[in-house]
Sequence to fold (383 residues):
Amino acid sequence: MSNIFLKLFFPSWRFFDHVEYEIKLEVSFENQQEPQNNCLEKGRLDWQVVSIPCAAPSFGLLFYNPENNLRLQQLSTIEGLAQAAQDRKEVSDSRFLKLYQEVLDILRSRLPQRELHLQKIRFRLVAESLSNPEEKQVLFISEIEELAS
Amino acid sequence: MIQTVGLISFLASICCLVLFAEEFSISKKFPKGHIGILSALGLIAAFANCFIPAGNLASFSSGLLLTLFLLLCLLKGGVKNGGADQMTGLLLLCLFAMRMGGNESQLTKAALYLLGIQTGLSYFVAGFVKASNRSWWDGSAVKNLAKLEKYPLPENFRKQITASRFLQKSSGGLVIFELCFPLAFVNTQLASGFLLLGAVFHLFNAYALGLNRFFWSWIAAYPAVFYCAIDFHR
Fold:
């Protein structure tokens, strides 16, 4: 809680200091059954990029843009986990575990429901270079998880 | 001073109306804790705050907005909308202090200065970190920014930016604008110019990058910058 207060009242204004990589969330279905859903894009090998679609820009979205703000919140969580995974010093790092659970929630909300109870998944976070899309670095690979709640 | 506080209060209410309406909509799709109820209460408080000019009721409504916003951040698990959430928190904290201080008090003046100076810093620090990165001067940062799938940039505009050297090089202009923003405190003419340019910049970001909450939270803080520009020379 103190972290939230510190961020709110002693803000950091370091916007876009580095624009070199984009963090991608990728998922692998452990039983190899490919889900029939357009929110998954083909990735390399058995990893598939989880795309989080956004609304097309319009003037009305200046006043009401929940889809895009949800999307930004989820992408911020994914980037937060990528950072926490690199920063953590012990396996039970509480910030890391909290973000890990939040990313599982994102997968629950973005992956097709009917496949979820049948499958075990593993996710990973990949930093993709913006100047050279071939340049990729895997930052983190999760344990095998069951998403069914 | 009273007009400045009134204007900040009105603009902060609009900022909160946008924020709580969006959070209410999100909570219906992805229920999490009591965010839905909290957002509904926030909508009512923000709407009421638009029409309360001053006095104890204004202190109560601004305090309520601040409390609901902090609870929302706690339930969401942190500051998830980055700079927009940080500016909204600062705005609501300063507004609450202004309402508690009342007309012409030192507390109100201090809160106006805090908000004004932090707004100036938000541009200056952003400009400073960009200036120390070569990619903002040679245009590659803008080219990379246009490639980020994170933002809903119109496809034709995305292509134009990645192809046009002129648009990429114009990022140097943005760095200079941000670095020079503290000049807005020198006099009201400069303040008007910088705030107008800043509003256009945020409007563009709201359209192209989908950062609509940044627009409302920064616009609501602008009267504090203008107040500082006037007060410095009194």
Q: What stands out?
A: The radius of gyration of chain A is 17 Å. The beta strands of chain A are 21-29, 40-42, 48-50, 120-129, 136-141, 145-146.
